[in-house]
């Protein structure tokens, strides 16, 4: 399900892998890999530690009941991911889902909505705390944007400088989760290490890139499973 896939990515105000369209926009595969590697290293060294520290600070604002609730919600979310993965086993590529599979997927989506509704209740209880964290991070976010923009420019295809910037350039995507950013920050597990978060981000980014490639081959139309990843 999409919210599961984006859980780790959504804690950032910037997108880690901005080069997933590289080969189609003038960037060769090796150059794209180098760009991704440098972006990942930058995020691990500069962004993740700050966000993780923010989340640990936020943990002190939660009541004991809220902390227990979030632990429970994370367990449920992980279980949903495992159920979805298990449901794909034995499924033939391109095969239309059966009615039973559709019902099972609908049940998973309903449970996800219930999880997110509970998480949003905690967000609503701490609007002031979350706003304070955002305000304290404004300078950091501006620096991250500028630094990542500089990294991206290093790998920008030469033909993008010749009046083809709009077609071949790469714009940094901000706030990938939009209005869901706060709830995903709240759902983040502050007990994770920097290495664990970085590893999860890389796995998710690679998965997203793989799905993007599949969509490109199918003229941009995602399958139902891809849409719900």
UniProtKB/TrEMBL annotation:
Residues 92-104 have a biased composition (Basic and acidic residues). Residues 81-104, 158-184, 201-229 are annotated as: Disordered. Residues 164-173, 205-220 have a biased composition (Basic residues). It comes from the Bacteria. This is Uncharacterized protein. It comes from Flammeovirga pacifica.
């Amino acid at each position: 399900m999409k919210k599961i896939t984006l859980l780790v990515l959504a804690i950032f105000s910037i997108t880690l892998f901005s080069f997933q369209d590289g080969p189609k926009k003038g960037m060769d595969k090796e150059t794209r890999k180098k760009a991704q590697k440098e972006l990942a290293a930058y995020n691990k060294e500069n962004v993740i530690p700050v966000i993780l520290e923010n989340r640990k600070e936020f943990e002190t604002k939660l009541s004991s009941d809220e902390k227990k609730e979030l632990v429970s919600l994370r367990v449920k979310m992980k279980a949903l991911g495992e159920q979805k993965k298990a449901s794909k086993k034995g499924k033939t590529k391109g095969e239309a889902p059966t009615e039973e599979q559709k019902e099972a997927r609908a049940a998973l989506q309903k449970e996800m909505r219930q999880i997110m509704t509970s998480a949003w209740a905690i967000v609503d209880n701490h609007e002031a705390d979350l706003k304070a964290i955002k305000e304290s991070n404004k300078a950091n976010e501006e620096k991250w944007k500028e630094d990542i923009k500089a990294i991206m420019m290093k790998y920008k295809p030469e033909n993008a400088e010749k009046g083809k910037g709009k077609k071949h350039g790469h714009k940094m995507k901000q706030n990938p989760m939009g209005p869901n950013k706060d709830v995903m920050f709240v759902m983040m597990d502050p007990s994770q290490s920097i290495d664990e978060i970085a590893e999860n981000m890389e796995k998710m980014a690679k998965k997203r890139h793989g799905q993007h490639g599949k969509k490109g081959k199918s003229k941009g139309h995602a399958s139902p499973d891809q849409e719900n990843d």
